[in-house]
Amino acid sequence: MKKTSNMSLNIETKVSQALRFLDEKTGAVIPSIQLSATYARDANYEIRKPYWYRRDGNETTAQAEAIIAELEGAEDSILFSSGMSAATAIIDNLPDGAHVVLPKVMYHGVLQQFQRYHKLNRISISQYEAGNLSEMEAAIIDGKTRLVWIETPNNPDWAVTDIAAAAKISHSHNAKLLTDCTATPPCLTKALELGSDISFHSATKFLNGHSDVAAGVLSTNDLNVSWENLYLIRKLQGTVLNTLEAWLLIRGMRTLFLRVEKSCENAMMIANHFEGHSLIESVLYPGLTSHPGHEVSKSQTNGKFGSMLSVIVKGKEKTAIDVARYCKVFYPATSLGGVESLIEHRKTVSGDGFPVHPRLLRISVGIENPGDLIWDLEQSLSLANDS
Prior knowledge:
Blueprint: H1 11-16, H2 59-72, E1 76-80, H3 83-92, E2 98-103, H4 108-119, E3 123-128, H5 133-139, E4 145-151, H6 163-172, E5 176-180, E6 198-202, E7 216-220, H7 225-237, H8 243-253, H9 256-274, E8 280-284, H10 294-300, E9 308-313, H11 317-326, E10 331-332, E11 342-345, H12 346-350, E12 360-364, H13 370-386
Parallel strand pairs: 2-3, 2-4, 4-5, 5-6, 10-11
Antiparallel strand pairs: 1-7, 6-7, 8-9, 9-12, 11-12
Helix pairs in contact: 2-8, 3-4, 11-13
């Protein structure tokens, strides 16, 4: 009999099998939910595993981290209890007086947290127009800037930043680059391979994909003291991801590639349908050739572009709110990346202090029938303009 050669499995196969998980004792192919918060030492009074208390982690959380590290092509991934707790750990890990460069438009919660630390005189911040690398570089202060934060595509206008170019600029000024690619998960965009030092994701969104988990994750290939400090911060703040959420996240990631492919296809159909629509001023979606970041997005997402888009409707701010209100298929809800499609009036959520167009509707496209989604937006636009 011929011997079969070893084959390097595709990442889709590895993730769908939770890294070929198999319980050797029972034969179970699904990871267990390890709920214990207390761990006994062995007969020699040694720790049996790398954790001696639940705040250190556990087997279920570690399995989820291993899957994400495989997805990211990372040496290590650390899971937190939310995207905000992961972002806050990054800020807490900065030395006093550190300077940080941020986009003017980004996820408003993270921006508010940076601004809060700035007001406390813990850090200083400068901002740049998302996607504008010249502005980004001009905001860097040599010898003081420790971190450059990019979000691509940017929430909620979906401006695109060239990750490789941003990494080159940041490193030339001895600053670290963190990339938030929440809107294009690692099955689309591998930020570390493009030169980013840290990849950030709100795992609540596409990685989980079922709107039943809050989680955040950081990944890197640079295992230094600063990275190890993040484990200590997570432990002291008590922000390790809980067991049930970690198990649900594993469950969600097993269908990541299928979910994201379908939602991207749906988003492209919706964007193409409504571009040039008589009741819509503009469609903001990197998959459209009219989008200024189209070519960069194409190269960074394997030509799939993601499933987040925004539309700016014609009329008044109330018109936009009414469009969201009148939807019968889209849920008028705040989040993204789930199997169900969502629509929200972004200014209502982000508030007056955040630079967002008053008639912008953010749309997270799910895996429903695209014809149903297009019909729903058509009927809600019609009703909003008749009222």
